[in-house]
Request: fold
Amino acid sequence: MKQINTYLHKKILVLGLAKSGVTAAALLHKLGAFVTVNDKKPLSENPEAQGLLEQGIKVICGEHPVELLDEGFELIVKNPGIPYQNPIIEGALEKGIPVLTEVELAYQISEAPFIGITGTNGKTTTTTLIFEMLNQGKKRPLIAGNIGTVASGVAEEATAENNIVIELSSFQLMGIEAFRPKIAIITNLYDAHLDYHGIRAEYIKAKANITKNQTAEDYFIYNADQQEVREIAEHSQASGIPFSTKLALKEGAYISEGWICFNDEKVMLVDEIALPGVHNLENILSAMAAAKLTGVSNEAIQEVLRTFTGVKHRLQYVTEIAERKFYNDSKATNILATIPALQAFKSPIILLAGGLDRGNEFDELIPYLKNVKALITFGQTSSKIERVGIEAGIKQINTVDNVEKAVPVAFQYSEPGDVILLSPACASWDQYKSFEVRGDIFIEAVHKLK
Reply:
């Protein structure tokens, strides 16, 4: 870790805890700052805050009092999930107090270069693929951000011999100042988190921050199939590395004659890749580009792509029973995420879907249900998804209480050669604490069939 004096004797407010807030507060305390932590959860129910209190850090819990701004803070480090409409944040910005996220702290102390990945879909898969490729290529990667350990915690331990591979959300990227990844990636851009950003333009602007500090010595890997991403690349100072599953590129990462290619080099046959789904080719191309730029050999890339079958809960291959293949795509918490899962398979699909009702309908799924031979619904949206299934012409539709009961029913409808796919198109919170819990219950139910 770099020893910096940037925060020595400065009054800093850490707003909101969770993992990132706890790590940021402890780090700033170590760097000599006068830290105050403010979290909405009461102290009696807040073991994280209690731990910081024991370290000698000032803790204020139970509410977010605007009066805190009268204490003369020189900086606020906020939890990414706290909106900018929060009265403390609004007041701080009016006073000209900088508001950062802990990703910025990580960059400032890190001896290791960063490979930053953002986008609407594919971030986790791409981040994991890059980590695995660099690991196979003995490049000593560390993984951080939404997918792994808090970035500033990883940066404390990193040396110049490491590469920090970090998944970045739009929320995190709104709070950077100098953060400059050696390699930046935007996988794709669709409508998302508009309840937070307000309008699409603000969401795109936040994502574009990943490359705003890059120079000609850095690389920006971008999706050449999307106009908005190409426009970001045009304004970037970094060396642009396009990738495309559709265009015949002369440079960058692309597909040609059944091969995935980098610049003019054939790296691997598409048919040899283990990870299913056309949408995953975007993730594979961008990950391959990052690996090649980091000096990873084709042999190491090939080994990963022949064996990597997916991130847990993201189109994860579970097992095969009686010639039926089971896939866990519990992380598909919206329609946009379920569509590529449905496109990933040529075999007939038994689809398990449903969950939290956010007020939307599911008609966008209809064109993609042609390969679905049976539909098992559950949760608050059961009737909505059932209606869509009927309109799509699915003959076998059944509603059950939950995911656990859906699995044996799906098996009954299936035949050898079929795919049984959990891809809910809904959040899990009507029945489960998280999509991870929902996915784990699916996996357990599948193994019970054996």
Notes: The radius of gyration is 23 Å. The chain has a mean pLDDT of 95.
